[in-house]
Amino acid sequence: MFERIKTLVQQWHDLKDIDAMSDSDLSDLGMTRDQVRRFARMPEDTADRVTHMAAVFGLSEADTRRDYYRYIDLLNTCGSCTHRGECAQVLARGAAAKPEDCGFCRNAKAFSDSAAA
Q: Tell me, what's the pLDDT at 6?
């Protein structure tokens, strides 16, 4: 319970910091204030999940991050996903995980399109 309270307090501080950001800061990030707020609320493992799920489709981390705005979209999609349990099960398979195992993944099409390109 204490850990949950600490997490909520940290998120509150993060959101206050986001509110204090200037328009120039946001422009440098290439994101809106609402996008940055959503990022602050995402599960901490979101970027790792995107990287590992992309690997299931044969993409490297560099491939996944090559297009900044596309990467932001991947993170947003993953960060709001309701299939975390299914995702964890597939990712736990490591190298045995296959793209056809990922029908639940809302980023699957983006990953497969990138792998085909």
A: 56
